[in-house]
UniProtKB/TrEMBL annotation:
The lineage of its organism: Bacteria, Pseudomonadati, Pseudomonadota, Betaproteobacteria, Burkholderiales. This is Nitrilase/cyanide hydratase and apolipoprotein N-acyltransferase. It comes from Polaromonas naphthalenivorans (strain CJ2). Keywords: Acyltransferase, Hydrolase, Lipoprotein, Transferase. Gene3D superfamilies: Carbon-nitrogen hydrolase (3.60.110.10). It comes from the Bacteria. Residues 5-277 form the CN hydrolase domain. InterPro entries: Aliph_Amidase/BUP, C-N_Hydrolase, C-N_Hydrolase_sf. PANTHER family: NITRILASE C965.09-RELATED. One of its GO terms (molecular function) is hydrolase activity, acting on carbon-nitrogen (but not peptide) bonds, in linear amides. The keyword Hydrolase applies.
Length: 321
């Protein structure tokens, strides 16, 4: 049996601060039309795809900060995306900054949604792993203030979509094994990820030359170790003086890259992905029920020379002579 989903990478080049939502949405619509012409059922856009990557700036004025956030989805500015999805019969994944109201208080999240082929939102995810820092650090060439501007999400769920089981993650999430495993344990068959990754890593500049390699490494490992497709999409190129990696790609459950963007601008690349290709990995090498040893993965603590599992049961002797 085969369950094919034709998936398009909707990579974006830079978005400058002065670019309006309307200008960005028309670029996204152009990518969607191109992907549709190539036979796509689903297009994946990057993290914070509606604006420039504003956490690079220390901004004090609350209204200035809020100008990068969406109070509703769809909004007047983003409605054309939903209309086009319905017209073309094509779904999309979109990252954006969300200003939510919770118990009468405004809360900011780094969010993504899955929209189905009828143009309806069927899943929402709020970024769990927020990188960077919360206070202004003037020694950096540019800031990475996600910890200041966003509240972390608290859940990796999965959504039935496009005939399979879909998951979402955002940028830094892709570097964490737990991201994929949390969804792998729920049977995920395709994980959609958007990212903004500057080439320069201020706290560890010696890693700058490895940024593209480590991007792909994380997604290939996550795909293979959980028997799932992984689709990673960049906002790339020189944005407000900061150079970000491209390297958007689609990774099969085998860990192989089956499609890849080659520029750092707006670009579509497509792959025909068989969701049934996950099963052979989930049934054999990564059959979790058969081979995982959760009892060995708990937090280990030492008590009188014994090693204890998190529930207090003795599982061995630490530092045995
Ligand atoms: N937007 C991100 O989450 N970017 C991080 C950077 C700070 C390294 C990333 O993991 O790509």
């Amino acid at each position: 049996m085969s369950r094919f989903v034709n998936v398009a990478l909707g990579q974006l080049g830079p978005i400058q601060r002065t670019d309006s939502r309307q200008q960005v949405v028309s670029r996204l619509c152009a990518l969607m039309r191109e992907a549709h012409a190539l036979g796509a059922h689903l297009i994946v856009f990057p993290e914070l795809a509606l604006t420039t990557f504003f956490p690079r700036w220390y901004i004090e004025d609350e209204e200035d900060i809020n100008s990068f956030f969406e109070r509703e989805m769809p909004s007047a500015a983003t409605q054309p995306l939903f209309d086009l999805a319905r017209e073309l019969g094509m779904g999309f994944y979109l990252g954006y900054a969300e200003l939510a109201q919770e118990q009468g208080k405004a809360v900011r999240y780094n969010t993504s949604i899955i929209v189905n082929r009828q143009g309806e939102i069927i899943g929402k995810y709020r970024k769990v792993h927020l990188p960077g820092h919360a206070e202004h650090e003037p020694w950096r060439r540019f800031q990475h203030l996600e910890k200041r501007y966003f509240t972390p999400g608290n859940h990796f769920g999965v959504t039935p979509a496009f005939g399979g089981i879909f998951g979402m993650a955002i940028c830094n999430d892709r570097r964490w094994a737990e991201t994929y495993r949390a969804m792998g344990l729920q049977g995920v068959e395709m994980v959609l990820i958007g990212y903004n990754t500057p080439v320069h890593n201020a706290p560890a500049p010696q890693h700058d030359d490895l940024s593209l390699f480590q991007n792909q490494l994380s997604m290939q490992a996550g795909a293979y170790q959980n028997g799932t497709w992984v689709v990673g999409v960049a906002k790339a190129g020189l944005e407000e003086g900061v150079d970000s990696i491209g390297g958007s790609c689609i990774v099969a459950p085998s860990g192989e890259v089956v499609a890849r963007c080659i520029t750092k601008g707006d670009e579509v690349a497509i792959a025909r992905c068989d969701l049934d290709f996950c099963a052979i990995y989930k049934r054999t090498t990564f059959n979790f029920d058969l081979h995982r040893r959760p009892e060995a993965y708990g937090l280990l603590v030492e008590r009188k020379g014994e090693t204890l599992a998190a529930d207090g049961t003795a599982v061995g002797v630490l530092n045995a002579p």
